[in-house]
Design brief:
By secondary structure, the protein is α+β, with helices and mostly antiparallel strands. It has one domain. The chain has helices spanning 5-17, 24-29, 36-43, 51-55, 68-78, and strands at residues 59-64, 84-89. Strands 1-2 form a two-stranded parallel ribbon. Strand 1, helix 5 and strand 2 (84-89) form a beta-alpha-beta unit. 1% of the residues are buried.
Length: 99
């Protein structure tokens, strides 16, 4: 199946600019009780890393204090399996972020 590039750009624009933002609880419910490999495969698709990318990991520090939807989108956009991620949930975040 061949996918038109303009179609992909349209989907990406709708995904980023959607006016209907899911609540934090809706975002969290997608992950609750799921195996990390399933989450990684279903919600964090990525291209196969090149040899150069595998030899040079990038470390990301992400501070999460509101908008789980935005945090999810940022992580989905930067995720590559060979990189390192440190996610800090700020103490001022809503209680639901800690459970």
């Amino acid at each position: 199946m061949i996918i038109n590039e303009s179609f992909l750009l349209l989907l990406l624009q709708e995904w980023i600019c959607s006016n209907e933002k899911p609540s934090d609880q809706e975002v969290f419910s997608k992950y609750k009780g799921k195996d990390r490999d399933i989450v990684r495969g279903e919600l964090f698709p990525h291209p196969i890393p090149t040899l150069e990318e595998n030899n040079l990991s990038i470390a990301y520090a992400v501070v999460l204090f509101k908008s789980a939807n935005l945090a999810e989108k940022v992580l989905q956009s930067i995720y590559m399996p060979h990189n390192i991620y440190c996610i800090h949930v700020d103490v001022k975040s809503p209680v639901g972020y800690f459970s």
